[in-house]
Design goal:
Layout (H helix, E strand, L loop, with lengths): L2 H19 L16 E20 L2 E12 L3 H20 L5 H21 L6 E12 L2 E16 L2 E7 L6 E6 L10
Antiparallel strand pairs: 1-4, 1-6, 2-3, 4-5
Helix pairs in contact: 2-3
Length: 187
């Protein structure tokens, strides 16, 4: 076969493909001026996910119940302090504010009496038990697999091509083709 015969067959094949897609006379003048791509379906032969691994943090809140003891009422220390305050006030009143020693003596006597009274009445063992909920946030980092798209291998006219898609295609994929005659008609 001569070189001219091969060129003629190539041109005829390109024209036939253009006519088959219905775009040869798309401009209405019959010249076949169509400059954008046409689309055909090609057979998918392989699909590989494009994967990357990222570390993400998933915080988790953990809560538990805790029993705490707290004194009921004033307790010994509180009652002793209250008694000292009352005794100091009484000493101040009896000394008409001019006898600081009487104020101090009243405070000491009031505290001693209140302390003795608190112990006698069981204020030391008088505690209340409450259940309190405690919570903390715990971090759980882990590696997560993310698919960034798909590397798709397809066959078109007996040749293998590879492209990248954002979705997983089925057994066929739509691909653009640009059919232009070669030689003196198209360039």
């Amino acid at each position: 076969m001569t070189v001219q015969a091969v060129k003629a067959i190539s041109v005829l094949g390109a024209v036939a493909a253009t006519l088959a897609t219905g775009n040869a006379f798309a401009d209405g003048r019959g010249y076949g001026h169509h400059y954008g791509p046409d689309y055909v379906f090609a057979r998918v032969v392989d699909v590989d996910p494009v994967v990357r691994y990222v570390t993400v943090d998933r915080p988790e809140q953990r809560c538990w119940n805790e029993t705490v003891a707290r004194p009921a009422g004033l307790g010994v220390a509180g009652q002793t302090a209250a008694g000292g305050f009352i005794g100091a006030t009484i000493g101040h009143i009896l000394g008409h504010g001019d006898a600081p020693g009487l104020t101090v003596a009243g405070a000491a006597a009031g505290a001693a009496i209140a302390h003795e009274n608190a112990i006698r009445n069981g204020a030391v063992v008088d505690t209340r038990r409450d259940v309190v909920q405690r919570c903390e946030t715990v971090s759980h980092p882990f590696t997560e697999r993310q698919v960034d798209g798909y590397r798709v291998t397809y066959v078109l006219d007996g040749r293998r091509y590879t492209t990248h898609t954002d979705y997983r295609p089925g057994d066929r994929i739509q691909v653009p083709v640009n059919v232009r005659p070669v030689g003196r008609w198209g360039g």
